[in-house]
Design a protein that fits this description.
This protein is mostly helical. 49% of the residues lie in helices and 0% in strands. Helix 2 crosses helix 3.
């Protein structure tokens, strides 16, 4: 006797699919002073721009993130391409010692 798998049809299949991929609650909001990475090619220009931002917390967090990302030579090259050195030169005159 050949075995033929019994297939579910209609409402049962749809209900099981909906249960499997049920709705999730919204993620928690990020703090207003958080610095997140942008998608793909926008990461490096975004962080470079944040070095000269008005908010002190953003400048500090952007520099910390740049420090973390610059562990790979390819990341350093990408930052240099978007103008990291002039931004760091401008940040060197900052009033905050952490940013300097």
């Amino acid at each position: 006797l050949p075995y033929e798998r019994k297939t579910q049809e209609g409402f049962d299949v749809n209900a099981k699919h909906l249960v499997k991929f049920a709705c999730m609650p919204n993620p928690e909001e990020l703090p207003a002073d958080s610095v997140t990475l942008a998608f793909e090619r926008a990461t490096h220009p975004k962080l470079t721009k944040l070095i000269t931002a008005d908010e002190l917390v953003h400048r500090q967090k952007a520099l910390a993130m740049i420090d973390k990302l610059c562990s790979a030579p390819i990341e350093i090259a990408k930052f240099l391409d978007v103008g990291l050195v002039p931004a760091l030169n401008e940040g060197a005159t900052d009033k905050d010692p952490t940013v300097r």
